[in-house]
Structures are given as C-alpha cells and as structure tokens.
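Hi R.,

Here's the input for the zinc ion complex you asked about:
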Amino acid sequence: MRVVLFILCVFAFLGGVSVLVGAQSAIHEIEAFMLFLIGAVFLVGASMMETLGVTNRNLERIKDHLRTGIKALDAKLIAIARLLDSKESSKLPKTESVPTTVKGTCKLCGGVLEFDSKHLGETASCPHCGQETGLETTL
Ligand SMILES: [Zn+2]
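And here is the predicted structure with zinc ion in place:
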C-alpha cells in the first residue's frame, strides 16, 4: 500500500514538473502546484503507512515478549503451587501428630485434669475422684 502511495506521489510530482515546464499561464502554474500538493499528500500517506507498519511490527514483538513472559510466569506459578501443595500435605499429618495438651477441671471434685485436645467433649473417669466427668477446658 505504501509503495503504491509513493509511486502515486512520484507521478504527481513528475506531472507537476512537466506542467510547470510547459506552463503558459498562471492557471498552468497553479495546476502544477496543485499536483505538487497532491504529491506531498501521497508522500505523507506513504510515510504514515510506513510508521504504522513499524509500530505494528514493534507491537507484535512486544506481544511475543509478553506471551513468552506470561508462559514463563505460568510455569513458575504452577511450580510454586505444586511446592505449596507438597508442603501443605507434608505439614498436615505433622500438626495432627503433635499432641496439644489442654487443662480443665473435674465438675465433681474440682481436681485439675490434663488431656489431649482431641478428647474435648468426651467423658472420662476423673483421676482424683474416680467418677465420670466431661472433658472441658476452663477458660
Ligand atoms: Zn473428680
């Protein structure tokens, strides 16, 4: 497209020159300058096309860069997610296996009871009075 515009520009310019050379009146000179003007318009159009083409090519290059960058980021994110998953799953049984001892009191004799937090809400026989009591924390 820009090549066509450039050729049109050259033709308009040459036409203007030929009209100017054979000019016999002011009208011919005006016609020649009109042709020069048209040639200038074509030249501007051609240069704009060229600029747009360069900009488009640059945009394509930037897009390619971004695409590869996004792909690399995706791969990294997936790796991080996998790492987090493996850490999470290796952490879970560990926290379960760690006993958390909590303190409570026997409802019947007031003796201090120590038991694993996973037995909360259950009933057990009190080591002080020997009776069944609910295991609750005293806060
Ligand atoms: Zn008791």
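One thing worth noting: The CA atoms of residues 105 and 111 lie 5 Å apart.

Cheers,
M.
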